[in-house]
Amino acid sequence: MRASSCKNTRLVAVRCQGETVAQVKAEKHDATALAPARGYQEKAATGFTVVMKFGGSSVASAQLMRDAAERILNFPDEKPVVVVSAMAETTDNLLLAGEKAVSCGAPQVSEIHELSVIKELHLGTIDDLGLDRFIISDLLYQLEQLLKGIAMMKELTPRTRDYLVSFGECMSTRIFAAYLNKIGMKARQYDAFDIGFITTDDFTNADILEVTYPNVAKRLHGDWMDYPAIPIVTGFLGKGTKSGAVTTLGRGGSDLTAVTIGKALGLREMQVWKDVDGMFTYVPNIYANLTPAPYLTSDESAELAYFRAQVCFVAPY
Fold first, then answer.
1. Does the keyword Transmembrane apply (predicted)?
2. pTM higher than 0.85, yes or no?
3. What is the domain-level CATH number for residue 80?
4. Does residue 316 sit within a domain?
């Protein structure tokens, strides 16, 4: 595992090659190594070379989205698949909005503070990037209608929670893809649950099923052959195998989305872009004057994950 930082934007790319990721995540998914997936090797011919994942704090504003786009431009020889999380704090605000909707009437939903914050953040970002608001207008309408439904039912079930939080990734990816297209980079937005991410029906902490790999490879490969464009994929989300409902993958789910895509396409590298200057042995927000480690073994990474380092994780069963 190798880390390299970009000081100008406080982003760091963590490149995980070979069996490294498999060992870090082995407790939940044995099939997450970036070696070619058995039976899917032919799909690597799509031309994709790397998966690049941007977390919520890396796309938390219009300027940070510009910075993320610049990171992609800085690798002109790469043909990436890009995985994007919800804009920072959006997931928490969606959950708070849902909890408040339970205790208020449907007419009061539009007055929920967190809903206003979500609208202001995303519409403000769109305006700053010079995009059209219609990109997410339907999603914002659906979000408000969902909250009104929660208010009427007076209940926020795990299934509804997953659908609720999915709006964050669905909006951020649409904005980012639209911006890439605006600056001349051909991009296509995807919701993970619509391109073959099939999971168990364990809402809020679903497991990805094996059928996902050929599904994703077939969809991305086919679309690339029809019209080459950078896939911008929602992290964290899937579709329940029996329910057909939106599911979420739990803590670190967007990283798992990225690794799964890399596995499906037979890629050897995944880049996780963070808003810190590297991999630290302590939390950099708490301890000052830390020096990032330029290299980590898989065992060292797993140990950091075990002790709750936020830059990597081991997902329990």
1. no
2. no
3. 3.40.1160.10
4. no
